[in-house]
Amino acid sequence: MTAMNETIKTIKERRSVRTYKDKPIEKEKINEILECGLMAPNARHLQPWKFIVVTNKDLIRETAKRVQDKVIDNPRYPFVKERLKTKEDAIFYSAPLVIFILGDKENKWSKIDCSLAAENMMLASKSLGLGSCPIGMARHLKDEKDLIEKLGFDENYELIITLVFGYSDEEPELKERKKDVVEWIE
């Protein structure tokens, strides 16, 4: 086996972090994460994304609470009530940085392109000493018109994925990956 380079090491060591230190992220690191998102491959170089960057703690808390209120009694999300027993914020985990990735509604490739940007951002954050976690439940914001307006979501774009970032206050272990999902045709 060959020696592991830094890129492969970062990919293999990145984990979803759900506990963050109460420490803001330096603007330079946020800008680097965003730059890496902008460097993602995208169909026909149309770059069908918008990134809404939120560092305002009150707005992050309000947004998390709105999502939490929408999903708290949903039987598909029993873990939200469980998380609330130990966490103040069961949605964004009190992370100091939330990035909403929006995709152009008219671009049929935007979900794929925005997902590629998201992965770039999460790998960049790991390489910068930060943790990250994709938050799928934030999609429940779609009916919160006043909050969407406050967040500055463009009406021609839809929320594809939400990412949280911060200085990790945990070391999640690697979960076993399925190996029988690869088929070779030679």
User: What about the largest sheet?
Assistant: 4 strands, antiparallel
Return the CATH architecture of the domain at 55-169: 3-Layer(aba) Sandwich
Find the structural class using helix and strand composition.
alpha+beta
**How far apart lie the N and C ends?**
22 Å
Low-confidence stretches: none
Count of DSSP E strands?
A: 4
Helical segment count? 6
Please estimate the helix content. 25-40%
Strand order of the largest sheet: 1-2-4-3
CATH topology of the domain at 55-169: NADH Oxidase
Summarize the structure.
By secondary structure, the protein is of the alpha+beta class. The protein has 6 helices and 4 strands. It has a 4-stranded antiparallel beta sheet.
Structure description:
The protein is α+β, with helices and mostly antiparallel strands and 186 residues long. It has a domain at 55-169: NADH Oxidase. The protein contains 6 helices and 4 strands, in the order ααβααβαβαβ. It has helices at 6-13, 27-38, 57-71, 78-84, 110-127, 145-151, and strands spanning 49-54, 97-104, 131-135, 157-166. A 4-stranded antiparallel beta sheet has the order 1-2-4-3. The longest helix is centred in the middle third of the chain and has 18 residues, at 110-127. It is globular, with a radius of gyration of 17 Å.
Indicate the topology.
Layout: H1 6-13, H2 27-38, E1 49-54, H3 57-71, H4 78-84, E2 97-104, H5 110-127, E3 131-135, H6 145-151, E4 157-166
Antiparallel strand pairs: 1-2, 2-4, 3-4
